[in-house]
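Re: duplicated header lines in exported structure tokens

Our pipeline writes sequence and tokens for each protein into one text file. With two proteins the header for the second block appears twice in some exports. Here is an export where it did not happen, for reference. First protein block:
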Amino acid sequence: QIELQISIIMKSLQILANKIINFAPDGVKSDVIRIILDRSLTEGQKMRALFDMVKPYYRPTLSKDGNRQSFIAEKICTKIHELGVDIQSQNQIVDIGGGDGNILSLLREKNTTLSKTHLHCIEDKRWVEEYTFDKDYIDYLFWDFHKIDLADNTIDLVLVMVALHHMEDSTITNALEEIKRFAKKGAYVLVKEHNASPRNLINIEWEHHLYHLLDTLKSGKELEYDAYKERNLFNFKSQRDWHAVFARHGFEQVETLNRFLENNVEKEYKNPTGLYW
């Protein structure tokens, strides 16, 4: 049984390594998994060793994650069309934890008349990753974890994509209450989260760590593990717990979908971090 569990974990980590550090040779990816599973090393030691290991192989042209956001933006457009939200109208859209606003930018490609009065990106300037916030057609709002500067009953669509698990429970409460305040009655909230469990927690955590390593490489900076740990927060929950949180705040669950915003049930090994909508 133990050998089977280790085999499943190694297979899951292999999927993540192939996805995130796709530019590294297969032998390096195998060493990455070996280091992650090495119980004699601390998390910080592991991340520093991994950073030094993959750094010589990184080139911006070799990283293939550029199409990831375009793919999910297309899926969002398809889903909101099914829900009756017209991307061609002058809808107001909010993306909580939207970074530089890349998803909002991709949605705007479907309707170039959308501007700062329609596209709102909610972020935290103290977040672990650095963003430029440089898109002049996006309204960047930096909230204090209590109040979001949007008028009552004005927003047609809210996106919250893998952002809630980076908040304390009290902040999640504030975020959901703010959404209820500024969203129009009947507005849709599209939430993407991990269905966390003891079985996949190592995958979820190391997906985040590896993406941070990749972002650090992209920025041309050196890894600062202590700063990463100080500014980062993990608050992963199971699907059941997430549904209960939203129910407590008066949200109505419309449907639960896989990570591709589809009804098809994925095999667990293909989705090692339990992502779903």
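Second protein block, exported in the same file:
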Amino acid sequence: MSWTEVTELVLQAQKGDRAAYGELVARFQGVVFATALGRTGDPNEAQELTQEVFVHGMRKIAQLRDPRCFAGWLRRICT
């Protein structure tokens, strides 16, 4: 998946397309989990944090000003 595709998925998700957001979750789940694991040191806590990050992200995605910043935005939510 290219960054252009990610940007398009973010734009679609911002319009309420849950399937597009699901694709973003699939694409970034590993990165968010790795970040969470680094922060918590516990795989179970990291999994819970990962889920919370994506739920929060889904609720707030409309507030993301620049869709190209999605990955960094997720990292910031996680930390």
